[in-house]
Amino acid sequence: MKGWEFYGEIAGLKLLPGVRHERTGTPEYVYRGSESEVDRSEAAKGLSMALECLSSGYYDLVVLDEINVAADYGMVDPEEVVRGIIGRPRHVEVVLTGRAAPKAFLDMADLVTEMKEVRHPYRKGLVSRKGVDF
Question: Is the pTM of this model over 0.85?
Answer without folding.
Answer: no
